[in-house]
Amino acid sequence: MHSPTLPPTPPPTHSRFAPVVALWSGVLSAVLLALVAAEWGPLISFDRAVADGLHDSAVRSPGLTRTNRVLSDWVWDPWTMRALVAVGVVWLWWRGERLLAVWSVAVSAIGSAVQQALKAAVGRDRPWWPDPVDSAHFAAFPSGHAMTAAVTLGLLLWVLARFRVGGWPRTAVLVAGAVSVVGVGFTRLYLGVHWASDVVGGWLLGGCLVAVAVVLHERTAARAATRNLAHRE
User: Fold this and answer.
1) Measured between alpha carbons, how far is 168 from 72 in angstroms, rounded to an integer?
2) pLDDT band for position 12 (50/70/90)?
């Protein structure tokens, strides 16, 4: 006797939206990268106007500048973000979600590699000031702080969605994550170590990387589930 055919389970919400996010964030990332590499005049002028306005404020407000340095160098530093991912990975491993744990490590590592490769390839100079309030190394595009924060938030939201965590825990992570992603971008601009397009590029690339990871993971998990079902039959 054949078991009755069950209706297909609808894919989780994050699986349905991931391809769209991956497509559009990828397209926008590519367009922005091309404009930065070509040194498109209107973009350069916009970046300069934002940088000049924020730098003037940073020079006049040393207390606010110190606060932004603490937030940028400690609270939202890329290593702080990676530590959060590491905690999540340990928890996933403990729960037996080995594939998702390994996937999260891979996404975080690939994000770091991509940003360094793009920095070397584009070779964009950071803003230069006769009276700097902070300093940074490597090339400017994309912002590593912004990209790492976006990857971390994306991974955390993905894990919550897979475990169907809702209510106030999901809201708290979403709010804290959004504040962190936007906040770290602002600190990098306020401290005069990045152009606005560097930060936007980091956000777009981070979102694209996580969305692509979600799509690939779901397809891998679906194929594994199909093989297991075939073996049982």
Assistant:
1) 27
2) low
End-to-end CA distance of the chain: 12
Pair 150, 181: CB distance under 8 Å = yes
- Is residue 133 within 8 Å of residue 68, measured between CB atoms? no
Residues 117 and 21: their CA atoms lie apart, in Å, by 23
Taking the whole predicted model, whether its pTM rises above 0.85 is answered as yes
**HEC-encoded secondary structure of 39-53:** CCHHHHHHHHHHHHH
Residue 143: CB partners within 8 Å, gap ≥ 6? 185, 188, 194, 198, 199, 201, 202
Q: What is the pLDDT of residues 56-86, one digit of tens each?
A: 999 999 999 999 999 999 999 999 999 999 9
* DSSP-H helix ranges across 61-143: 62-70, 78-94, 98-122
Query: 53: burial class by Cβ within 10 Å (0-12, 13-18, 19+)?
Result: exposed
Record the tokens describing residue 183, joined without a space: 């906040």
| Cβ-contact 214, 158 below 8 angstroms | yes
Look at residues 105, 116, 118, 79 and name the one whose alpha carbon lies nearest to residue 213. 105
pLDDT (0 to 100) of residue 132: 97
Residues 67 and 72: their CA atoms lie apart, in Å, by 9
Separation of alpha carbons 19 and 83, rounded Å:
27
Contacts of 85 (CB under 8 A, 6+ apart): 104, 105, 108, 151, 152, 155
Residues near 113 by beta carbon (within 8 Å), at least 6 away in sequence: none
The rounded distance, in Å, linking the Cα atoms of 185 and 1 is 61
